[in-house]
TrEMBL record:
Residues 1-24 are annotated as: Disordered. The lineage of its organism: Bacteria, Bacillati, Actinomycetota, Actinomycetes, Kitasatosporales. Keywords: Membrane, Transmembrane, Transmembrane helix. The chain crosses the membrane at residues 34-67, 79-101, 107-125, 137-153, 238-260, 298-316, 336-354, 366-386, 406-424, 431-453, 465-484, 504-524. It comes from the Bacteria. This is Uncharacterized protein.
Length: 681
């Protein structure tokens, strides 16, 4: 089978041969004076920005500097995506050093080192800074997707520090990791003793922390300070980063679909591919990630989309290819480690497919990828050697996102069949897409067989992998666009000129995609006047729901009134439900930076009292569980009780006879009225 080499994009880099090593005009080659001047500027700039409290601009400069040195893509959006991936990978890998050096996350030395490394790389590669400023009309679809998603997610939070935020316990687990990283100054798996105080269970040692670390370090640059904020302030900032990350996930998926399609897929065909991708992003299942608090998965999938796209269509030189592969491994493994297999598949296929192209520097590439793989797998290796039972965890149960399996199956079949159709004269991208798609199906099949063998059914982590497969297939959907026929070049007798046919077709395909894949009905009433499918989607529901919820009210009550008069450990008895009492206590410990105590709170799930006065056997049973809990805690707890008479009774029974067992406070639940719904149009 003959494979046509990729013709899209220039080939650059110091590993490409003498032509790539020619001295750019005007830079004087590898002049020591140029290097010294650049390094001096790399440290002077962070100093100046720090004095102005604008250290976040250091990251902006680093992003633009990387984009000016790499030679990937001919447009501005392409260059920003690649440089964003490389910068994120550099920050996560550099975090291993920053976690143990004396300055920790201080933006001044970190910014100086980061810019210096970029300057050294540009000087060593003899690269002339050159930034691609060209825009494509399909960039409007990518940017429009981001604006639409931001409209809905921001509208859903306005006026209610997010019931959507407070109602999700998993989000507070992620917040605890984020806040602990910022306060301790590094990865928690390198500071497990300190991290276990404020995170639950063994999260400090085993949970992937790349997204939390990235958020924490970016927050330090944004604030130009490492001084910890109050937990309510930190919580609000963390939630903002999560919302932005979700918007970027949607943008990255649409861009990745276009990148795989390539520049030869122009005109209405590009619009068709991008429109279908955007509509599938706006529909299910990705918005459910935001609702259910799967924050690290949001970041991990964004890096999966960008990394897989660049590896499926590696229209770049060997230097950029090596950097992209390394950044993909690190960002995905650190954000959500089980997804790294989807990045490894196209890398392994590329090593086989491009073995002739890599001749002469293959050993260097293999050594580089091995080093990158070691850095990427380091946190996972630490967790395994920390007595973490991987086999038991692989069949664990948990909250899953229920989405139509037919969507994944249909996308996978479309990608595989389109690649098979093109096998008579395939491009390298089509071969890589086929290998990645078949490999993804194989990964799902093997893991499903493993789970069925161990537990009799598929469960939590299979659904996680299925969601990643959805993103991989959606990214690969760009290859299907090659089957679409371009418009024929007609003469003057054509009813419409070509420049009008292209946009009309693109708009028409976009409208059809909104109806087919996003359930948009364009104002046409549904049968029986029921709600349209679009109105029932997770993204729209997020922005229109205004009802409160019990967990949100308990958390708001604690933040507004009881946090100031409490010390950890805190036992919250706002409600008459043991499960709600446990969840609110969990969130309260997170706000007090003492989530490590929650391992002792199992008995609280059986304390079914708080909002109203109870007596008799029910009270005695709950009191016995409460007494068991109090005696098992390392220090005297604060107990917040929602009913005044009940609080007095508990205080008497626990602290009677001069025994000061617990601090019992009357804490009636504050009922927040739901925000007014948006007026109908």
């Amino acid at each position: 089978m003959a494979v046509r080499p990729l013709a899209e994009g220039p080939v650059h880099g110091p590993l490409q041969g003498p032509a790539a090593l020619r001295r750019p005009p005007g830079l004087g080659g590898r002049s020591p004076k140029v290097l010294v001047s650049a390094l001096a500027l790399c440290w002077l700039l962070p100093l100046m920005l720090g004095a102005l409290h604008l250290q976040v601009l250091t990251l902006v400069v680093a992003l633009l500097a990387i984009g000016s040195l790499v030679r990937v893509g001919g447009g501005l959006v392409d260059r920003l995506m690649v440089s964003g991936l490389l910068l994120s990978g550099a920050l996560m890998a550099f975090g291993l050093v920053a976690s143990v050096w004396p300055w920790r996350l201080d933006p001044l030395p970190a910014g100086g080192v980061l810019l210096s490394v970029i300057a050294l790389a540009g000087w060593y590669g003899d690269r002339r800074p050159r930034f691609a400023l060209r825009l494509r009309w399909s960039d409007g679809i990518i940017a429009g997707t981001g604006l639409v998603v931001w409209h809905f997610v921001h509208r859903g939070v306005t006026g209610r520090l997010g019931d959507g935020m407070m109602m999700v316990g998993d989000r507070f687990s992620h917040f605890a990791i984020f806040e602990s990283i910022g306060r301790i100054g590094g990865y928690l798996f390198l500071h497990q003793a300190a991290g276990q105080v404020s995170t639950i269970g063994n999260a400090a040692g085993v949970y992937p922390q790349g997204s939390h670390f990235l958020f924490a370090w970016v927050d330090v640059f944004v604030r130009s300070s490492t001084v910890p904020l109050s937990t309510p302030q930190s919580l609000s900032r963390y939630f903002t980063y999560v919302l932005l990350a979700f918007v970027l996930l949607c943008v990255c998926v649409v861009w990745a679909t276009r990148w795989v399609a390539g520049p030869r897929l122009a005109g209405w065909r590009t619009g068709a591919v991008c429109a279908v991708s955007a509509c599938l992003v706006l529909a299910e299942p990705l918005p459910e990630l935001l609702r259910e608090g799967f924050d690290s998965e949001i970041v991990g999938l964004a890096f999966v989309a960008v990394s897989v796209a660049l590896l499926l269509r590696p229209a770049m030189g060997q230097t950029e290819y090596a950097l992209v592969a390394a950044a993909g491994l690190v960002t995905v493994a650190y954000s959500y480690n089980i997804y790294v297999v989807f990045v490894a598949l196209p890398i392994a296929a590329g090593l086989l497919l491009f073995r002739r192209r890599q001749r002469g520097h293959r050993v260097a590439l293999l050594v580089w990828l091995a080093a990158a793989g070691a850095v990427a797998l380091l946190p996972s290796a630490i967790s395994v050697f920390s007595h973490f039972d991987v086999g038991q965890q692989s069949v664990a149960n948990g909250m899953v996102i229920h989405f139509d399996r037919a969507t994944v199956i249909g996308l996978g079949l479309a990608v595989i069949l389109s690649s098979l159709v093109s096998l008579s004269r395939p491009t390298a991208t089509q071969v890589l897409v086929l290998v990645a798609a078949v490999g993804t199906v194989a990964v799902l099949g093997v893991f499903a067989a493993w789970q069925i063998h161990r537990s009799g059914t598929v469960s939590y982590y299979f659904e996680k992998l299925a969601l990643a497969a959805f993103v991989v297939f959606l990214t690969s959907l760009g290859s299907v666009g090659g089957l679409l026929r371009p418009l024929a070049r007609r003469g003057r007798s054509a009813p419409l000129p070509r420049r009008l046919q292209e946009p009309l077709l693109a708009v028409g395909v976009g409208a059809a995609a909104l109806s087919l894949f996003a359930g948009f009905q364009w104002g046409i009433p549904s049968v029986g006047r029921t709600s349209a499918q679009w109105r029932l989607s997770s993204l729209v529901s997020w922005s229109t729901e205004r009802q409160g919820n019990q967990l949100a009210e308990g958390t708001r009550t604690f933040m507004a009134r009881d946090m100031a008069r409490s010390t950890a450990p805190v036992i919250t008895l706002y409600r008459g439900s043991g499960s709600l009492n446990w969840q609110t206590a969990y969130l309260a410990q997170a706000l007090l930076r003492r989530n490590g105590m929650m391992t002792e709170f199992g008995a609280l799930c059986k304390v079914d009292m708080g909002s109203s006065y109870i007596s008799g056997p029910r009270y005695r049973q709950s009191l016995e569980q409460l007494r068991l809990l109090v005696h098992g805690l390392p220090s005297r707890p604060t107990i917040l009780v929602g009913n005044k008479r009940l609080s007095e009774q508990i205080d008497h029974d626990l602290n009677g006879g001069g025994v000061n067992t617990a601090k019992v406070l009357f804490a009636p639940l504050i009922h927040y009225p739901p925000a007014a719904a948006a007026p109908p149009k």
